[in-house]
Structure formats: structure tokens, C-alpha cells
Specification:
Elements: H1 3-6, E1 9-13, E2 16-20, H2 25-29, E3 42-44, H3 55-64, H4 73-86, E4 94-97, H5 100-111, E5 117-122, H6 127-134, E6 138-143, H7 152-158, E7 163-169, H8 181-190, E8 196-200, H9 204-207, E9 226-231, E10 244-247, H10 250-257, H11 267-278, H12 280-303, E11 315-319, H13 324-333, E12 336-338, E13 348-352, H14 356-366
Parallel strand pairs: 3-12, 5-6, 5-7, 7-8, 8-9
Antiparallel strand pairs: 1-2, 4-10, 9-10, 11-13
Length: 379
């Protein structure tokens, strides 16, 4: 973890100061200047669905706004049951969160603490690492393999009796790469019985089906140490309304539930999520659009002698052969926000896929970089 990521973010509120022990992605990525208007920016930095939500879900959001004066307690269990049905399980195996990041926080609180250890890939989504450190746990990052998969053998070597959690993001953020399912199953079987495993499937819908990948919800394994997380923030286009969930054994979820925020689900997302789960056509349209946009990105990259990491998500990471910070700043000056710096991949950038016109602007801005004509020398 770099010193900049360790540093507390401080906000002055009169005489008071609030310190946060983890960086907020938006504040770490967006320019501090108040002169930049969000509507004038191209946002390719948070792996959002640039098209969503679907028209059916949008209608549900508008309708649900009329009931925003009520707590959604009556709808809470209806949503849990609907999610359970989706995964052919029971509602006592579902835990809802304010985004899947709340699920990660409750996992840290339930299974970590002083004297405990969490193991993760490096780089990966940092939320759990930050939560672990905030409550006094050790967070151990193991570099990804040359194929950008989780180094499961290397992770296994770091496991001790104090390892409370192992975090697997698959497809991985920020690399958009896959770790083979058969390797994950073999890895999990070798872990101590006291070690719990989070399988973060935030980008599941974009991964497709193959011998290499299958969801731990679509093809479950009978292991009570597994916690599988999903989110409505990506393919469903509902990042701003914050809903995620975990699927795990009732015993595990009881431990996690103690640390959830009371009334953590809002009245609008409960209705929107129910419609989203029934809108298979809308979801598949987003998946197809993403496939088309992803392929076009690779076409444009190859035309420029670039070789991005093979992507199984709605974002792409590629080596620029120059300091990532310089490239990020270049795009920022041209009102395009791309992903933040991900150590130790210091020359790589992460680009969330946008609409075709936004991606055209991305490539036009890329071509303005002074050294792009010389990139062939690196191949």
C-alpha cells in the first residue's frame, strides 16, 4: 500500500476534522477543482454501466420516488426472497448491503480484527484491504501472475492460523482478468477450516461462460466458508442507488448481520432491483453492448500497436509504457476521467468502457499524447 493510500483524507468542518482511514475512489480520482462540471466530463473511471438503467427500471425508479417518505421495511424481505429465487436458494442465505462494499465491511468486522490477517491479490479492489487495516488487521497483498490471474499458490504460502479472510475478485478489478474456476476450487479446499473466502462477482455478467469461468452461485460448492458477493451497480446500471448482497450459509450471515447498517436499503432501490431482476432482456442488451464496445476498444488499441490485458469485464487495463499518473493527468486536462493509479502496475491505466461517442473522444485524446507515435518500439 503506497503512502498516499495510507494517508488519511481530512475534511475541515469548522473547527472539527473528520479523518477517514481509506481513500474514497471519487475523491482520489476526480480533480479537486470546483470549476469542472460533471455534465461536461466524460466518466470512464468507475466501471459503471454508461447506458443504464433500462427503461423498465427507470420507470420503476420514477414510480418508487413517490414512496421515498417511507422506510422500505415491508419490501426488504420481498427483495431477499426474489434474489434467493434467482440463485435457487433460500432467503436466510441472503444478506443485503448498501452496495457490495458494505458487505465487504461487514465481512471484515465479522472475521477480522487485531491479530487477524487478510490475504488478497495485488492489485485488486482495495475496499476490503482498507477495511481490514482500519480495524487493526494485517492485509497481505500477493502480486498477480504474469497472466494477471490470482497467484493462488503464492497466496496459499502466506496463509497462517491467523488468516481470517481471503479475498478473490473474479473477474478481477482492475485487471479485468480471470482466475480459472478449477484452480479456485483446489485452492479453497487447501485452506484451513477457520479461513473464510470472499468471492467477489461484481462483474460476473460480463465474464461470459467458458471452461475457465463459472459463478460460484450458478455452480455452487458445499463449503460453508464461502461468501459470494454480487452488486446491482454494474450491469443493472444502479451504482448511484447502492445495492449489493452476499450469498452464504445462515450461520456465516448471522455473524455479518451484526455489523450491517440499520435500514441500509432505500425505498427506491428495493423497487428498482425487483424490476431489474425480472428484466432479462434489458440486462442482456447491456451485456451485448458491452461486448461490442469492448471489441471496438481492442480494435482501436491494436490499430495503435497497443496490447491491452484480455478483458472479461466492462473495463480494460493496458500498458502505456509511461507513468500512469502522467497519462491520467493528460486525460483529466481534456475533461476525461479514467481509472486511478494501481500500484504496482505503475505504467498501466484502467479505462471503463463508455458509449461509442465517449470512446471516440478517448482515442482522439489518446492520439494527442506526444509519445504515441513511438510506442511501436516497445513491441
Amino acid at each position: 500500500m503506497t503512502s498516499s493510500r495510507r494517508d488519511f483524507l481530512r475534511f475541515g468542518l469548522g473547527a472539527a476534522t473528520i479523518s477517514l482511514p481509506w481513500p474514497l475512489e471519487s475523491l482520489a480520482t476526480e480533480p479537486a477543482s470546483s470549476s469542472l462540471n460533471r455534465d461536461r466530463l466524460i466518466l470512464l473511471y468507475s466501471n459503471e454501466n454508461p447506458y443504464g438503467p433500462s427503461s423498465k427500471v427507470s420507470d420503476a425508479i420514477k414510480s418508487a420516488a413517490m414512496s421515498s417518505n417511507r422506510y422500505p421495511r415491508l419490501e426488504y424481505h420481498t427483495l431477499m426472497e426474489r434474489i434467493a429465487t434467482t440463485h435457487q436458494t433460500t432467503s436466510d442465505r441472503i444478506l443485503l448491503g448498501c452496495g457490495s462494499t458494505e458487505i465487504l465491511r461487514t465481512s471484515a468486522c465479522a472475521f477480522l480484527g487485531p491479530g487477524k490477517q487478510m490475504i488478497h491479490a495485488s492489485p485488486t479492489f482495495e475496499a476490503l484491504e482498507n477495511y481490514a487495516r482500519a480495524i487493526g488487521s494485517e492485509a497481505v497483498g500477493v502480486p498477480v501472475t504474469p497472466a494477471y490471474a490470482h497467484d493462488l499458490e503464492g497466496m496459499l504460502k502466506r496463509v497462517t492460523a491467523s488468516t481470517g479472510l481471503v479475498y478473490i475478485c473474479n473477474p478481477n478489478n482492475p485487471t479485468a482478468s480471470l482466475t480459472p474456476r478449477k484452480d479456485l476450487e483446489a485452492f479453497i479446499a487447501k485452506l484451513p477450516q477457520s479461513t473464510f473466502v470472499i468471492i467477489d462477482e461484481a462483474y460476473h455478467h460480463y465474464a461470459g461462460t467458458s471452461d475457465m469461468y463459472s459463478s460460484f452461485l450458478d455452480r455452487p460448492v458445499p463449503d460453508e466458508r464461502l461468501i459470494v458477493t454480487r452488486t446491482f451497480s454494474k450491469v443493472y446500471g444502479l451504482a448511484g442507488l447502492r445495492l449489493g448482497y452476499a450469498v452464504a450459509s445462515p450461520k456465516v450471515l448471522q455473524k455479518m448481520h451484526k455489523f450491517t447498517t440499520e435500514d441500509n436499503i432505500n425505498a427506491i432501490i428495493t423497487q428498482a432491483a425487483l424490476v431489474a431482476l425480472d428484466d432479462a432482456d434489458g440486462m442482456m442488451e447491456f451485456v451485448q453492448r458491452n461486448e461490442n464496445d469492448r471489441q471496438e476498444f481492442f480494435n482501436q488499441a491494436m490499430a495503435r500497436a497497443l496490447k491491452p490485458i484480455d478483458s472479461h469485464a466492462n473495463f480494460i487495463m493496458m500498458n502505456t509504457f509511461h507513468p500512469a499518473g502522467d497519462v491520467i493527468d493528460h486525460f483529466r486536462k481534456n475533461k476525461i476521467l479514467i481509472g486511478r493509479h494501481f500500484p504496482p502496475m505503475d505504467t498501466f491505466i484502467r479505462v471503463s468502457l463508455g458509449r461509442p461517442e465517449e470512446m471516440a473522444a478517448f482515442w482522439q485524446t489518446w492520439d494527442l499524447l506526444p509519445w504515441t507515435k513511438n510506442i511501436m518500439m516497445h513491441h
